[in-house]
Amino acid sequence: MKADELRQKYLEFFKSKGHSVIASASLIPENDPTVLFTTAGMHPLVPYLLGAKHPVGNRLTDVQKCVRTGDIDEVGDASHLTFFEMLGNWSLGDYFKNEMIPWSYEFLTKELGISPDRLAVSVFEGDEDCPRDVESAKLWEKCGIAKERIFFLPKKNNWWGPAGITGPCGPDTEMFIDTGKPKCCDSCSPACDCGKYLEIWNDVFMQYNKNADGKYEPLAQKNVDTGMGLERTICVLQGKKSVYETDVFKGALDLLEKLSGLKYGASDEITKAMRIISDHTRTAVFILGDDNGVTPSNTDQGYVLRRLIRRAVRFGRKLNLDKGALSALAEVYIEQYKHVYGELDRNKDKIIKELTAEEEKFAKTLEQGIKEFEKVVFFLEKAGQKKISGKLAFKLYDTFGFPIEITEELAKEKGMDVDKEGFDKAFEEHQQISHAGAEQKFKGGLADHSVETARLHTATHLLHAALRKVLGVEVGQKGSNITAERLRFDFNFGRPMTREELIEVENIVNEYIKADAPIICEEKSYADAKADGAIGLFENKYGEQVKVYTMGTFSKEICGGPHAAHTGELGRFKIIKEQSSSSGVRRIKAILEY
Q1: Residues 6+ apart with CB under 8 A from 345
Q2: What is the pTM of this model?
Q3: Which of 72, 128, 197, 357 could, after both became Cys, cross-link 176 (CB 3.0–4.6 A)?
C-alpha cells in the first residue's frame, strides 16, 4: 500500500461511519500563542472539543499537516521527522469507546489487512486520580485481541492531557504492531524501547476535566480524538526498516543520489545526510507553501524555518551538492503532494524564491564565518595554541551563525582541535535561557478562550477591516497570535506604515467599537458566504458549512471564534507597535484599554 492509498482509505472509511471530511488547517496556528506550529490533528479543533458547535457536525475526519521540531537533532535516524501527516477522526460529544474501539480494530484488520495476531494494545492501568480502564480492555477482547496482548500501563504511557495545567484530558488506548522480535525481558511490553512493539494508532478518550485544585471531574461533553501518523503506518505496512525507505521519500532520495553521485545506504554518514536534507526540505516546502506560511527570519516560526533550511544546506555540503539542490528537491515534493495540498502548487514561485534566497544568505554567512574563524586561528597560532575553546566555538555559532560542524571541519584542516564539550556546555546554557523564555511565552497549554482573548480576537476583525479601508482591499490577514494581554496581527503590505496611517487605523477601529454593533454569527455554505461578501481567511481549511461573523456594516468574516457579543465590549483599541514580520508582511501589536 502506498501513502496516497492509505490517506484516501482512511478518509473513506470514516466517511462511511458518518464523518464529515474536513480539510487540513494551516500549519501556522490561528490565534494561538501557545505553539509555533500545528503539532497534531486536534490542535485546530480545540474550541469544538471544549463545546463550541462545529459547522459540519459532531463527527469529523481529516489529514492534518503537522510540524514538530522538538527532536530536530534526532532527524537522520530511522524514524524521526519534522513534518508529518496525521490521520485523525473526532467525536464531539457523539460516540465513545463502544464505537471507536471496534472501528479501530476493523480498520486495522480489514482495511489495512493486518493480522490480529500481530496486534497488541495498551490501556490505562488506573491510579489514585482515575480508575482502571477496564471498559476499553473488555472491548478489545470482544474484538478478538488475546488477553496476553492487552497491556495495562500508567499515565505516562496511556493518558492524554491536559495540554496546560488545567483542561480536558483522559485515558487513551494505543495500538501496536508486534514486529516478531523476541521479548527483551519477562515484563516486556509496549512501554519498552526494545523495538518489539511499534505504535501505529492512538485513540484518546477525553472524559475528564482537570481543575485548578488538581482534581479530575467528568466532562459534560465526552470526546474522542484519534491520531495515526501516515509515514509511520506506511513504514509498517510496506515492511520497511525506516520511514525514509517508503514511497514517501523515494522521489527525493532518487534525486539526491543523482545530484550527488552517491548511493543512499552506502555509509552511515551519507544515509544520515540524505535523510536530513530530505526531511528538512520537505518541511520547509510545507511551511513556505502554506497559505498562511511564513518566510525565514530570526524570530518564531521564521527562525525554525531558517534553521531547517540552513541545516539542509549544511548537510548538502557533505554530499558536495551544488547550489540550487534544495530548489530542485522542492519541485519534487510540490509535484508529489500538489493533488492533496493545492496550496503548494499555488505558492510554488514563493517556495522556490525563498529557498534560493535563504541558500544565498547562508552562503554569505559562511563566508563571514570563515573570515572570523581565520582571525581566531591566527591569534591562537600566534599564542602557540592548538585548541579552539568551547566559548570561542560558541561565539562563532551564536554571533555569526557558523555551525559547530564546519568549525570542527576547518579546524581539522588546520591541524587543530575544538573543545566540543565546552561548546556543548555553552550551548546548553544558552538553551536553558531560551527555554525559560519560551515557557513564559507559551505557558498555559492550548489556546486560551477567556473573555479577554475573545475580545482581542474580535478586535483583529475590526483591525483587518480598518487596514483594508486605509491601505487598500488587497491587504489580507497573514496570521495572528493572541494572549489575554495583547493581539498580534500579520498582514501583507510592502512597506512600513506611516504614523498618519497608524493613527487613522486606530481611530477607525475605535469608531467601530463606539458603534456598539451586535456581533452576529450565521452558518451557511462556503459559496453563499463568499457571495455575501465575507472574507475567507485560510480558504483551504473550510468545509462545506462555515461560520460567518458580521459586525455592523464594517466587517464580515469567515471564522471559528471566539468572539464578543457586541463591539462596544472592547474598550479602547491602541496600537503599540508596527514592524516587519517577514518579506512583504507587516505586523501590528495592539491592546485593549478599559
Answers
A1: 334, 338
A2: 0.76
A3: 197
